[in-house]
Amino acid sequence: EVQLLESGGGLVQPGGSLRLSCAASGFTFSTYGMAWVRQAPGKGLEWVSGISGSGGSSTYYADSVKGRFTISRDNSKNTLYLQMNSLRVEDMAVYYCAKEGPTRVADYWAQGTLVIVSS
Amino acid sequence: DIQMTQSPSSVSASVGDRVTITCRASQGISNWLAWYQQKPGKAPMLLIYAASSLQSGVPSRFSGSGSGTDFTLTISSLQPEDFATYYCQQANSFPITFGQGTRLEIK
After folding, report:
1. Out of A12, A26, A65, B64, which could bridge A2 as a Cys pair, Cβ 3.0 to 4.6 Å?
2. Burial grade of B55 (CB within 10 A; 0-12, 13-18, 19 or more)
């Protein structure tokens, strides 16, 4: 059974940093692309970042986070990360980690972790 | 970036109704289109991928169609558990983008 367990959310001041983690199990983690998707309170879904699988190291970012967020993975630990720097109020959201299927869609999602950016 | 536009933004329907939601891409995306369902306080769930392929475990009353720029999600006979918000997503090119969502409410 595919399981994705996030951690690292919380309260941070504007300009601060936070690192989200997503521990994966139930599938061959290294083989699959992974992604982060966020949802601001009362708003729709926004794709944030993706990273390739199968030994690749390609990374992709939404324009809104490019240069501030860094996605990475540790295949030895079956864990996905999102390093978030220079956080802004508009980054406040529930962040979901997701496993990508063959057509780059998110076929499994974690439960979500809330990031609050406030002074 | 590819813009995804869903219509309607909200729809009211009754149990047993047939409902269709549309999604239009600002440029051609072949069949790189997915549909998700999200219930309040929960993570989204994949319903349809590659425009018309049903994700494993999803009831057959859900179906998708379309190619290029115009796509539809159809629920053939609404069940009580189907009242939720639905999102389309293009996976043709980065950045991946979602539609704004369609809220399906009970009439």
Report:
1. A26
2. middle
What pLDDT, in 10s, does the model give residues B36-48? Answer: 999 999 999 999 9
Is pLDDT at B106 greater than 90 in this prediction? no
Residue contact A105–B94, C-beta within 8 A: no
Mean per-residue pLDDT, B84-106: 96
Distance, CA of B57 to CA of B25 (rounded, Å):
27
Q: Is B55 on the interface with A (CB under 8 A)?
A: yes
pLDDT value, residue B105: 95
**Phi-psi category of A83—alpha, beta or left, where left has phi over 0 and alpha has psi -120 to 50?**
beta
Task: Give yes or no for a contact between A103 and B32, defined as CB atoms under 8 angstroms apart.
Answer: yes
d(CA A47, CA B44): 12
Enumerate residues 6+ apart whose C-beta is below 8 A from A119: A13, A14
A60 touches chain B (CB under 8 A): yes
For residues A10-26, average pLDDT: 97
